[in-house]
Amino acid sequence: MDGRNLHRGERTPPSEVHALNRPRPTILLVDDNELVRDVLGRMLTREGYEVLLADDGHDALAVIDRLRHPVDLLITDVRMPAMGGRELVAALADRHVARHLLFITGDPSGEVLEGVTVLRKPFPRTALLARVHELLGPPPEREEGHA
What we know:
Elements: H1 14-18, E1 26-30, H2 34-46, E2 50-54, H3 57-66, E3 71-77, H4 85-92, E4 98-105, E5 117-120, H5 125-136
Parallel strand pairs: 1-2, 1-3, 3-4, 4-5
Helix pairs in contact: 3-4
């Protein structure tokens, strides 16, 4: 989607994301690999984002059901045992719960969705942060002691 609004396919300027009444942009990170989920979650938290974690699509739906606001960015693995990223996005299509979408995958030949930004695993920290900053604008203030 490369910066397009998940539910309408329209571009949402980073300035609109930061104009929300939340102190930090919220990222929902969905990956069935606990190590990947934890490392990426810590990295994004240190960058200053509010990060919510889910271990598959079903868990992500439960997290979203508990939220009172949409997430700014949904980062999801494409292939997961219970419910993969494509199925998750399809389940969320009419719910307007994520402003932006980023797929991550270890499958080098994996088809995703047309027009959706994809990072192929393994990717360097800088590649992920560049994509997140591109979608959400400059990072918010970093957590104390983690700059």
